[in-house]
Amino acid sequence: MKGLYCKPGDQGEVKFVSQETNVPTVVVDHQVKVQVKSCALSPVDFKLYEDLKLEREHVPVGREIAGVVLQVGPKVTFFQPDDEVVGILPLEAEQSGLCSVVVTDEYNLVQKPEKVSWFEAAAVIKDGLRAYTALHTLARMAVGQTVLVLDGAGPFGVLAIQLAHYHGVKVLAAALSPEDQKFLEELRPSVARVIRVWDSKEDLVDSCLEETGGLGVDIIIDSGVRLYDEEPEAQRHCPHKHDLLTLLSVGGHWVTTEQHLQLDPPDSRILFLKAASLSFLNDEVWTTSRAKQGRYLHILKDVMDKLCTGTFRPQLEDPVPLYEATVSMEMVQRKQTRKRIAVKL
């Protein structure tokens, strides 16, 4: 049985290869054998594997899976054969999610609602987890607050907007292109304001302060930050860190995806004066630490429930056949796609 794996190459290049892999014939303890029906593709963070001492010659590709339970271990209590499940394989998993059959612990899976397709379940599970982690776990959002979602038209941004709307939060969203602007303006429920960060005539700080009566936004979820005035072309639409500190309200929460964010003493002083907080969004902590396993599974289940009831309405590419997985993964790794891609097995 073959699966998709990647190998870091020279000069930062990544090579994706299809290779044979072995599936354990016997499932033990809390293990579950799953026949994979669909697997979503997300970029591989090699630096994270290095930091966690999980380096290996070939890293498995595809961790968000949906499928049918074939066999359960003697200590499994959550599932039975023929159950439909969805989940995220842990970082230390040896198998690629693009294998036709995988073995994982029952604690990595939840029941898939019958009305939800395999394709949607696999494609939404990770972005839904990120949205919950950002808004609930880190920002502690509450009714009546205002949230700014930068890159609101991305797969994660769309779900963050819909989750915020569900909880009565006012949403401001940034559009990175005219196409993003059109998409965000057509969203229902509608966002309070679409900010054209691609347009040099519109200022992010002024727009947010105008929309909030000068008080600033309660929650910021970024999609990258400029640390200096001169940045690479790829970050031309990313706001400067000082802009985000300026538009943050008193007692506000800034949730950042920027791993290398550096705050100087004057920046920290601004946070102190506003009694504001900064959090780093790393949704991998749920599987690297089992300290809050019950909460993690509750979030995954709630993501599926909201997908089933229509609260989450993701923007997805059409399902990709398995023979196109390598090409699709290369595009995902280079961040050349704007919608989430899932492979149909």
General description of the model:
With 345 residues, this protein is of the alpha/beta class. It is 30% helix and 25% strand. It is built from ten helices and 16 strands. The strands form three sheets. Strands 3, 5, 6, 7, 8, 15 and 16 form a seven-stranded mixed β-sheet that branches. A six-stranded parallel β-sheet has the order 11-10-9-12-13-14, with helices on both faces. The longest helix is centred in the middle third of the chain and has 21 residues. The model has no long low-confidence stretch (mean pLDDT 91).
Poorly predicted spans: none
* Residues in helix, %: 25-40%
Number of helices: 10
Radius of gyration: 21 Å
Assembly form of the protein = single chain
Strand content: 25-35%
Label the structural class. Answer: alpha/beta
According to DSSP, the number of beta strands is 16
What is the molecular shape?
globular
Order of helices and strands: EEEHEEEEEHEHEHEHEHEHEHHEHE
Mean pLDDT: 91
User: How far apart are the first and last residues' alpha carbons, in Å?
Assistant: 13 Å
Give the biggest sheet: 7 strands, mixed
Write the SSE topology:
Layout: E1 2-8, E2 14-20, E3 31-41, H1 46-51, E4 59-60, E5 64-72, E6 84-88, E7 101-105, E8 109-111, H2 118-138, E9 146-149, H3 155-166, E10 170-175, H4 178-185, E11 193-196, H5 204-211, E12 217-221, H6 241-247, E13 248-256, H7 265-274, E14 277-280, H8 285-288, H9 293-309, E15 320-321, H10 325-333, E16 341-344
